[in-house]
Specification:
Layout: H1 3-16, H2 21-31, H3 44-52, E1 58-60, E2 64-67, E3 71-74, H4 77-87
Antiparallel strand pairs: 1-2, 2-3
Length: 97
């Protein structure tokens, strides 16, 4: 699959996580993923994307997703808010310990 196709699929998968940061957190809890605060390649969203697209690497910020170091996808507002909140110690249930 090309990076362009990944970009489209990543956009869809991110939007499906929810319309608010709390909904995104709930979707990630339901999916059973956990992550590390302030680590773009290991936040819960990046971990989740790796479960959806095995064999690919993701780095997630509150505004962008970098895919395999090549392509990028824009992060939906709710996912970006979740990333910011997670990095500031909200949603402790999603923190890998």
């Amino acid at each position: 699959m090309s990076v362009a196709n990944h970009d489209f699929d990543v956009d869809r998968v991110l939007r499906e996580l929810g319309n608010t940061a709390d909904m995104v957190a709930g979707s990630l809890v339901f999916a059973g993923v956990k992550g590390v605060r302030c680590e773009h390649a290991n936040c819960p969203v990046a971990v989740y994307l790796r479960t959806k697209f095995p064999g690919h690497e993701f780095e997630v910020s509150n505004s962008r997703v970098q895919i395999d170091g090549l392509g990028r996808a824009v992060v939906p507002i709710a996912v970006g808010e979740f990333v910011t909140m997670f990095d500031t110690e909200e949603f402790p249930e999603l923190e890998a310990r």
